[in-house]
Design a protein that fits this description.
Helix content is about 60%, strand content about 10%. It is of the alpha+beta class. One of its GO terms (cellular component) is membrane.
């Protein structure tokens, strides 16, 4: 449901611009540029016309009972009928019409019904200032009418009080209707805004989830695929290698490919709907599994030195340990790509309340290194991961041509 389905509830209609709102021109233009009446408009106008006519006939009957002259009664009939007919074009000139009917009702009580309907319409469709002006004129008209056409059954004071009550009733009722419509507009706009914000929040959550999955996929697969690339390259450039070395390299390629497929299945499982994933998901890496990562690197032929100064790695929070693992993994991967043969040192230290510090260093590679393409997205992803965990990460080349990665992660006491 949109606001265009209810043009009379648009803010422009509530602002009281001419020709808008219920009884305004918030409809498709008809011939000559005038607004086309809807079925609802015809029903409302017909009911108001009949109501005004009924009130006019009641006033006319009172005038007849007072034995006033036939000419005056005829004049009342004509002016009352004209006032009721004037209600049909009231949508175009509501303020002008009510001011004219205020004057006519002073001399013709039969126009009082049409006058009250027009007063109600102005209170519904116009802001406070025009309504206050029209209300002042209506109060003056209510005071003058009993003086010009007195009603002996009520007297002057009774007629004035009755007229003021009717004026206040019509104005108050119209303003109440206007306020309720404004409230509906505000509530609908708030609902639409809330719905749009919910959509934006959902899109942002999806974007963050995609970024997290992409970062995790890079961190996991880069390590495995680098092992594949290095050993496949060794087999390509050393076809005369001893069979034992070829078998070992082939075994590393096979194991790395298998592990890469397992990691890829696990990451893709995150994208599945609840209940579609494998219940036997592998556990996430932590600081306690850092030894296994180093052992894999050594088995692949890398020279890795691990200095883990944390006495109880299992006591480190799982999220912090996982981040430490990913930092060390990315450091080993980059060293294997850009400094093959160089010894990599991984230092982990810290404690509760002090935080966890991770250092990954490798010197300049011995000899010439073939160019290996790299986008730097891994280090960018690690920096984002450390920042999200509440820590920091710095990296860069050292003076001797090596590379240094240092990260600090919080560990609450």
């Amino acid at each position: 449901m949109t606001r265009t389905e209810y043009p009379w509830l648009l803010p422009s209609a509530m602002a009281g611009s001419p020709g808008t709102g219920p009884g305004g021109t918030g409809r498709a233009p008809g011939p000559g540029g005038r607004p086309r009446r809807t079925v609802r408009d015809w029903v409302v106008d017909t009911v108001l016309f009949l109501g005004a006519s009924l009130l006019g006939l009641t006033a006319l009957d009172t005038s007849t009972q007072l034995n006033e002259g036939s000419a005056i009664v005829l004049l009342d009939q004509l002016l009352g009928a004209a006032a009721c007919c004037a209600l049909w074009p009231r949508r175009r000139w509501p303020v002008q019409l009510v001011l004219a009917l205020a004057v006519v009702s002073i001399v013709t009580p039969a126009a009082g019904g049409a006058y009250l309907v027009a007063l109600f319409s102005v209170a519904v469709h116009r802001p406070f200032r025009p309504v206050a002006l029209v209300g002042g004129v209506a109060v003056l008209s209510a005071a003058l009418q009993p003086a010009v056409r007195p009603d002996p059954s009520l007297g002057y004071l009774g007629s004035v009080v009755t007229g003021l009550l009717l004026v206040l009733l019509m104005v108050g009722w119209g303003m109440l209707v206007r306020s309720s419509r404004q409230l509906v507009v505000v509530l609908r706009e708030r609902a639409e805004r809330a719905e749009e914000e919910a959509v934006l929040r959902a899109e942002q959550a999806q974007r963050l989830a995609r970024e997290a999955i992409a970062r995790e996929m890079h961190d996991v697969l880069a390590h495995r695929l680098t092992l594949l690339s290095v050993h496949a390259g060794a087999l390509e450039f050393r076809p005369d290698a001893p069979p034992a070395e070829v078998a070992r390299a082939a075994g590393v390629i096979r194991d790395s490919a298998h592990e890469a497929l397992q990691d890829l299945r696990q990451i893709i499982g995150v994208l599945r709907a609840p209940g579609e994933g494998d219940s036997a998901d592998r556990p996430q890496p932590t600081l306690a599994t850092l030894d296994t990562l180093v052992a894999e690197g050594r088995a692949a032929g890398a020279s890795v030195v691990l200095d883990n100064r944390i006495a109880d790695p299992a006591a480190v929070p799982a999220a912090t340990g996982r981040t430490v693992y990913r930092i060390a993994q990315e450091g080993l991967t980059n060293a294997r790509k850009h400094a093959p043969g160089a010894e990599v040192t991984v230092v982990v230290r810290g404690g509760p309340g002090e935080g966890v510090t991770v250092l990954v260093d490798n010197p300049a590679p011995p000899g010439e290194v073939p160019a290996v393409p790299g986008s730097g997205q891994g280090l960018i992803g690690l920096t984002e991961r450390a920042t999200l965990a509440g820590g920091t990460l710095r990296h860069g080349r050292t003076g001797d041509g090596g590379f240094h990665v240092q990260a600090w992660l919080p560990w609450s006491a």
